[in-house]
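Quick question about two entries, pasted in order.
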Amino acid sequence: MQYQYETQACELKNEQDKKDLLAKAELQQREKERNYFIIGFALVIVLAGFIFRSYRQKQKANILIAQQKHEVEESRKEILDSIHYAKRIQKAHLPTLSYIEKNLNRLQNKG
């Protein structure tokens, strides 16, 4: 009887050890999964941070480009206005084509 009791106790102990090992392995697996999830979540947060930073930099660059475009358009307008003004002044000081032709014809007729 003592032998049977010891063998049963030994079997029970072996079974309990197996259950403990399985529980320990399952617990380690859950810890690994939790750690992987935490690492993955942290990486997503870091990636989101980079994307947000890039978005903000792009917004600032677009604002700067819009300001520069406005300045270029203003400068272009001023230059064109200056050119048109100079053209009007030249037309005012130069004789017309009909006046030149009339005087050329008159000089050719005399000569």
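Here is the second entry:
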Amino acid sequence: MKLLIVRHGEAGPAVSDAARTLTDAGRADVARVADALVARDVQVNQIRHSGRVRARETAEILAARLEPAAGVIETPGLHPEDPVDPMAMSLFGERESLMFVGHLPFVAHLVGRLTEGDARRTPVNFPTSTVACLEGEDDRWELAWIERPG
């Protein structure tokens, strides 16, 4: 199984953090990454996002190109300061490839937890619009590749 962990695209300012939308540059970066994923023949069954506007917009841009069979859904537990263990445990038994779209520091900590067994060890630098592809299942994961815009 592949698990693609994505940090949302660049977002602009807003009255509330949850309402921040992607900038034009953020949309363009996510579109470039989506095209690169298509070129890699990436297929995901479902895209799950945090529900914050910038994550939802990122997920929608990716979904327009990747066409996940089970669609795009808002999923609790992908916010910046959420604990990673519940999300890591939710992967047990999953066999279809998934994509999570979230925020720092959560995405970096999740990769650390899955690949290193320790959320404090973050093997991936996550600028906006970065995708880390992990391969494995249950509690055995390896970092396969990283895709960044530009």
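Reply: Residues 34 and 62 are 5 Å apart (CA to CA). The chain has a mean pLDDT of 96. Hope that helps.
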